[in-house]
User: What shape does this take?
Amino acid sequence: MAIVAQTSKFSQISRPVLAWAIGLLFFFPIFWMVLTSFKTDADAVKPEYLFFFQPTLENYVNMTSNYNYWRFAQNSAITAVVATLFNLAVGIPAAYAMAFNPSKSTKNILVWMLSTKMLPAAAVLYPMIFLAKGIGVFDTHALVITVVSLINLPIAIWMLFTYFKEIPREIIEAGRMDGVSTWSEIKEILVPLAWGGIASTALLIFIFCWNEAYWTVRLTTIDAATLSKLIEGNRAPEGLFFGRLSAVSTAAVGPIVVLGWFCQKQLVKGLTFGAVK
Assistant: This one.
């Protein structure tokens, strides 16, 4: 006879309340940023105008007309899309080889790739700038895309490797026995089976590339500057322009929030890939 554990009324009430409290806690900074974006720079620092103020679209008008927001957004989109495609183009074959054709050095290679994320970025900043200026690629899309791609490549390979390891090896071996080529094996067998994991990897890598600030701010000036550069520019010796800063930050976060909302099904599917046998 099966014994079914009954949940107390306290747990039935406390768990949803706790979940809502945590959700609101994480959402509050975004809410405050959006709220501040409708204030003037003067009102944004006045305690009496925390919640009750005269809304204005001045910050958004200035952002699009005076700060050329669309050019920075275009650079961010180009960098994120191309870097994500590069990570998938390199990461899928690399993870496939490590998952289904492992060698004695596979684990060491994976650990080595992950260890590159432990390198302090400041340690290679000035050599990177010196080299980029020396070969004439400073403030170019090619430089930013290359750096951002290589930074996130270890994460992409690790994630894809984890998803691919959950696929039964017998399916891949059956395809090989039927004479399927390596490319067809990846395209027709591996990708459809691991599509959820690949989609979630692409989404996370896209978010990392879109939000990258350290390198995009320091390796660009005007031509290849992304939204991170525009956000960083809303400061002066006398302080921060909180109204304009919030408006630019809201416009930078908005596309990612919308993308995550529409792709949440694939994201959840990818994050839970292989959890249930």
